Amino acid sequence: MAFGITKAEIEEWKKKVADGEVALLTHFWKDERFPHSHAVTKAGCRDLGKLAEWGNRFGLDEKWIDRRSSYPHYDLMGAIQIKVLEHYGRNDIIHKFKLKKTAD
Fold first, then answer.
1. Is residue 101 part of a domain?
2. How far apart are CA 43 and CA 103, in angstroms?
3. Three-state SS at 92
């Protein structure tokens, strides 16, 4: 279950993914399989080759791409989530979703 984002943010992410951009979307998230994660960042792109190449730069395996929807994406949690968000200068997202134990 996703929460903490607006419908407009979701629609913007979907448009970018559909247009072949690598787009990031972070939201609060609860999943029993991942009890230590309270938020996820979806890194999506309709172009699977481009998405796999992007993921490779961050040490992600192509087999981890979620292909079940019209919006293929990696689900990023924990240290890799923070690494990617920091790479893109998204400290605002790290702060908003309290992804680090201590403040920067």
1. no
2. 24
3. helix
Residue 55 near residue 62 (C-beta atoms within 8 A): yes
The tens digit of pLDDT for each residue in 10-50 reads 999 999 999 999 999 999 988 788 888 899 999 999 999 99
Burial label for 39, CB within 10 Å (0-12, 13-18, 19+), is buried
Nearest to 19 by CA among 66, 63, 71: 71
In a domain, 102, yes or no: no
Q: Give a yes or no: residue 42 inside a domain.
A: yes
pLDDT at 33: 85
pLDDT of residue 101: 73
Q: What is the DSSP letter of 6?
A: -
Residues in the chain: 104
- Report the C-alpha gap between 40 and 24 in whole angstroms: 10
- Enter the DSSP assignment of 66: B
Please report whether residue 103 resides in a domain. no
